[in-house]
Amino acid sequence: MSQQGSSGNVIAAIASFFFAGLGQLVQGRILAAILFCLTTYAAYGIASFTLGIFLIIAIPLHIWCIVDAARYRS
Question: Which regions span the lipid bilayer (predicted)?
């Protein structure tokens, strides 16, 4: 996982697509994984109670998590 676009980064991005923060965890970035997971799912949780208003925050945050995993350079 040393370069952007490597197969490791692609796997990490796919993992982050299914579970926010999992791609960062696969890359060994524990703090980033925890922060992405907590903030993304907190926004999704609040969105479920506020009839989707927080989806404006949750969806871009989840996409940012995926892109961050795909573009990571060690």
Answer: 42-67
